[in-house]
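Researcher: Re-running this chain for the archive, since the previous output was lost when a drive failed. Same request as before.
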Amino acid sequence: MLKVSASQRAAMSIAVDARRARELADAIHPELRAQGPDVMKAYAEDVAHGTILDTITQCYARGIRDKDQILNLCYIRFIINADVFKHESFAYILNNGLMHPYAKARHLILSFFAINAMRAGA
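Model: Regenerated structure tokens:
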């Protein structure tokens, strides 16, 4: 019988997450280019792909796995041209220990677009 040690399981889990992140980045990248051509034209293909992959990795580390939420967080990252997870405006949401990761991502996305709508006078 084959036995897998805890360290081997951890290594396999990391490898699976990395593969899933690459696959998701490959799927999200063209979608972002199609939905936000004005925002995305400022970024070279490889830089944009690396940024998307980094955002996905950070989402996975925080328990955010929903594709639509990750897509929106990537889009926000390109709009503000800064790391969403290190941006002080979103710290109160991300550091809330009582909220589920899905709720954190949803609140962050909604607050970003609500703030932009208020600034635009909508």
